[in-house]
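Human: Can I borrow your eye for a moment on a structure tokenisation matter? Separate attempts, laid side by side, tell us more than any discussion would. Could you pick a protein and write out its sequence and tokenised fold? No explanation is needed for now; the record alone will do.

Assistant:
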Amino acid sequence: MDNVMLARALFGSSMAFHIIFATLGVGLPFMIVVAEIAYQVKKDRDYALMAKRWTKCQAILLGVGIPSGTMVGVMLSLLWPGFMEIVGQVIALPFQIEIWAFLLEALFMSIYVYASERLPAALRIASVTFVALGASASAALITDAHAWMNTPQGFRLENGQVVDADPWAAVFNPSWPTTATHVLFSAYLLGAFAIVSVAAVKLLARKRPERERQYHRKGLILSLAIGGVMSLLTALNGHETAQMLHRHQPEKLAAAEGLFETQAYAPLAIGGFTDKETRTIRGAIEVPWALSFLAGNRFDTVVRGLNDFPEEEWPPLFVHTLFNLMVGIGSLLIVVSAGTIFYRLVKKREYPRWLLRGLVLTGPLALIGIETGWIFSCTGRQPWTIYHVQTTASAATQSENLGTLFVTFIGLYVFMLVVTSLVLRYYFKRHPVTPDMLEAG
């Protein structure tokens, strides 16, 4: 494996690890806000207890998310010095503002954790809302740098030097609104379905008291409703993303759909595999005209194919599979959440065990969908680090011995995942929900 591939593998592994905690760190505070509002509306102490217990989980995850985010920052400097040279002059602003967003989150997290029981209802909701706003703002600002890599603006390169830098133009790059919205919706989605998975596991246990089962049913329904709405919003935002790719990254859209020939009335390819040799897509189900409609809201929209671009600038063609996996998981979550809520409204009885077993999988599936989406977005930009400005090869470090660094950090990430899982398991085993319900009255 050459130096560039090792650098990509190490940074990609670091991001894949951090994304778990970063995304849950945005999704869980949103769910805590929802539970607090439900408590104030329904006056049901179970929702206040949900918010309290989810906050304990958020605190543990935050303790891992902060150092893993720091490691990602270190990796950027170590592995991509050519990239950081441009970033520091053009797109450093969102990183600086993100510090204040994190401060907002940390400050109001302290207020909520230690003083929520003493606050009136309005201030209680306000404190946890600021926690969620800080977390969401952090995600949107960090995403800004990623969006700028896809649609760079706010500078020019002359003889390899940055000139005419305009940081605000870089911040408000064309793809940021769509990309940031997609990241936030998918984070809220993951927060909801993570709770669905836990509630389903608890309801599958046969010997739990009925009072505890009622608590978990409420959490399950609340999370399914939020997860279903966020899944739908993510899908609608995906339509906007396709239009953004059509305008700004047409080769990524073509690779995502295995489209080689430029054409109007372009079909949408579902499934199958892209064959580079024959320049066709094999085994796919094609929906006539659908890709053209996604790209331009018209069936006769002309969608550019890969043959319009030099082959050395094509993204890896396996991004078609990544794209299908991401979209397939999102669509499945919409169906599952809507079907489960409908079942509850119509049947009005206990969920069957087969359904609960299926719901256990929704959290892991949501996480896989998010990981797949990030891999698709970054891999689909290759061979560029900054689209049509800087290649990945020119951005990468020339240092040797990255293999040793790779093995060391992968071992560290596995260790941190195991320890985090054990801490979560130990804490909630030592603090079961029934005593908390008795204490809450």
About this structure: The two ends are 61 Å apart (CA to CA). The chain has one domain: 3-440. The longest strand covers residues 156-158. The mean pLDDT is 87.
